Amino acid sequence: MITARAAATFEPVGRSVATARAFVRDTLQGWGFADVVDDAVVLTSELVTNAVVHAGTAAEVCCLRYPSAVRVEVADRYPEREVPLQDVAHPTGSTDREGGRGLILCAALAGRWGVEYTATHKQVWFQLELPERPAGTRSAGPALPLAALPLADARVRVAVVQVDSDGAITGWNDDARALFGHPADQVVGKPLGDLTAWPQTPGTGFGLAEALRLSRWEGSYGIRGADGKILSVYGSHLRVRDSSGEPSTVCLLVPEEERAVLQSPSRTPAQDPSPADRGKSADPFEVFIGSPAPDDLDGLLQRTVERARDMLDGDAAYLLLATDDETELEVRASTGLPSARQRFARVPVEAGTGRYGSARMPAVHEDLTVAPGAVPLLAGTGMRSVVTVPLKVEGRLTGSLGVAAETPGRYSNEEALRLQFAADRIALAVESARLTELERLRRGSLSFLVEASDLLAGTLERDQTLALMAQMTVPTLASWCAVYTIAEQSEPELAFVLHEDEDRIDGLKALLARISPPPSDPTPGARPWTAPGEAAQSLALRATLRSVSLTDAARPAGPGIAQATAQAVGGETVVLPLVARNRVIGMLTLGKPADERFRQEILELAEDLSRRAALALDNARLYSERTAISQSLQRSLLPPELPTVPGVEVEVIYQAAGEGNEVGGDFYDLFPIREGCWGFAIGDVCGTGPEAAAVTGLARHALRLLAREGFGGPAVLERLNAAILDEGSRSRFLTLLYGELWPQEDGGALLKVVCAGHPLPLRLRQDGTVEPAAEPQPLLGVIDDLELVEQSVTLDPGDVLLCVTDGVTERREGGRMLGDDGLAEVLAQSTGLTAGAVAARVQRAVERFAAEPPSDDMAILAMRVPEEPVPAAEQRPL
């Protein structure tokens, strides 16, 4: 028979969970059922969370009072969402899951429970039996079997210790002497702290002296015995005053394993509880820690804040972890706070002066409106009162745990002590999980940096380096990235933009083009940059106002580009300087979408990456500059263009060995000397690279100058030989074929050539005959007194003169070499071809002779007298 009924409806918002807990707590306490309040509140919290968070509907909570039981019903309006009853029937391994957790708790804590469906509602209910109360007692626990009773010594001893307001011992009974071995006359008058092994390091946390000033509290700590060993005790402490008003504290102490003697909750823990009874453990901190695996940091932290909120009946809770240098705290888990306040927001450890200005000490703020800014994380959230305690391991600050409420004056020192004890119990587990995660992150970071270094080292091209920088950061480190470059004596320039959503790249690029670049500060590390987010929000606001002013027919459907861009860049944005060789060469900008922040480890990894990327970008810049200079100088060593020779076809093919080289040790030239006479040359300097190219430039310019001064072929080469020898250690051997070309009116051509150590020129006649067109003579750059002679060759119409460097004749594959005979064979098959076709055929023969690409410079000069003279206007300039 129902003797009383109370019901309320709660909206589908996160704060409704705390309101529903308060409703159930007040209702049951008003009915006088304090024994089942805790279980009812825990179960209501889980079921309402399922309704308003997971089902997303309003929750209807109804409390029913029976003569011997209390029934609580929680209904939602989402009957299609099935309850995972299989997880309740087989709970092993499922306690870490969010779905079905409330039903597992129902099975563990409630005497009866069930699920009912209607066409519009789904209702989960549980029933808690009221404990029997024998006459003459205020409360009593249920009868337990002998095996379930807690163990104790043959005689239970309760040490009674009285401490004055200064913390000195004034009373010490016989049981205290029996338990700890200290006679009363040896301890009376001494500070209790001399015997106490307190969980927190004295002077750095919530100390014993502060705890003794509380009106009442219970908890575990250690007492050092006469033998020097520490005995773990459980104590119940009550602060009293005598007739004169002098305060003191009475401490009742028992061994930790006998804590049930003093513990306030009526339920006493069984020695080996069954699975159904484990949720009823009298140790609130075992329930507080929850079930995530020790290395599941995120699960452990989220479960911790939820249990902290439930334990102190708060509206919100948060947990922050300290950075390695203990100067900042980073939000890692929260409940009941806006999303913008959640993960990876950072606050300083030392927020201000005074006792509550440091996260290293417990703090209770009864009303945040009296001290605005005291807890920056809660600004603008509607929270009025908050209690925070530090997490410490071996005296080192590792984090901070806070619980907040919307009403003022909710928390006092007693709640701070309860929360501090809970924080002490979980601090080591949290730190262990944090270190495990940090080690995993660092190993991944090292692999990431090694791979990034390899990729950056694999290119010396500027644009490709910029693209690699962005692609390595998105989406691994950030959701979007922008790279600014700074040339000497110039302003920053937006060089590359990348977003994880390709459709948003153009919008992001347009947004960044509208705002000024970030300042080029060389200070290492990431610094915040708010301009992109502010600009995006401004654009979105203007777009919204324009949309409101439009008619329904003209208003665009769905979110516009401005709103999408604001959502994409509305989170935290940081700038890292790109510093190379003590100069800022650019900035790497990383951004997150709305309401997201960077975690400290990611920023440290980005800083390492920025240093490597800056050096790679600067190397690419230097390489590009030097390549441009080199190519400009090399191009100056080649003829700008070949002149047109009346009555003669001329074709040149030139290929320098080595990557990035346009000029090597081989060279060619064709230039007018005087009216009706042209000079031509093809040579090969010993070696390759810049040194050979320097002699190339000397030879080409000297040939032109000397020939135009009227010197004949032998005189030109003899003076060039002297110039090469004058270079001293920079001189190189030089083979050179130099000649003068005199086109004849009858259609032929007269050539006067000097072949100084160079491969002999070959003459191809119309009948396919191939023969050398000169005799070999000594090469240049070896001896001082050089005597050379000039030889004359006449080309008839249809004849071809082929001049090559040894890169053609010495083309090798294994032990085979193309040689002079192979070249003559290729030329013999070129009868009737134009000069360009002859040169191309020789080049193909060289390339096909071996599988490997040519490793030596190569120059091919082909001159052909057509069968019929070609008018000058039809000659093709080369």
Q: How are the SSEs ordered, and which strands pair?
A:
Blueprint: E1 4-10, H1 16-30, H2 37-55, E2 59-65, E3 69-76, H3 85-89, H4 101-109, E4 112-117, E5 122-129, E6 159-164, E7 169-172, H5 174-180, H6 184-187, E8 196-197, H7 208-212, E9 216-224, E10 230-241, E11 247-255, H8 284-289, H9 297-311, E12 316-322, E13 328-335, E14 346-348, E15 363-365, E16 385-393, E17 396-405, H10 413-457, H11 462-473, E18 480-485, E19 493-499, H12 505-514, E20 527-528, H13 531-549, H14 561-569, E21 573-580, E22 583-591, H15 600-636, E23 649-655, E24 666-674, E25 677-685, H16 690-708, H17 713-725, E26 734-743, E27 749-756, E28 762-764, E29 770-772, E30 791-795, E31 800-804, H18 806-809, E32 812-813, E33 816-817, H19 819-828, H20 835-849, E34 858-864
Antiparallel strand pairs: 1-2, 2-3, 3-5, 4-5, 6-7, 6-11, 8-9, 9-10, 10-11, 12-13, 12-17, 13-14, 15-16, 16-17, 18-19, 18-22, 20-21, 21-22, 23-34, 24-25, 25-26, 26-27, 27-30, 28-29, 28-31, 31-34, 32-33
Helix pairs in contact: 1-2, 2-4, 9-10, 10-15, 11-15, 13-14, 16-17
> How many helices in DSSP terms?
20
Which fold does the CATH topology of the largest domain refer to? Phosphatase 2c, domain 1
Low-confidence stretches: 81-100, 201-205, 266-294, 553-559, 874-878
Shape: elongated
Helical content band: 25-40%
- What count of domains describes the coordinates? 5
Biggest β-sheet strands, sense, barrel: 6 strands, antiparallel
Strand share of the residues?
25-35%
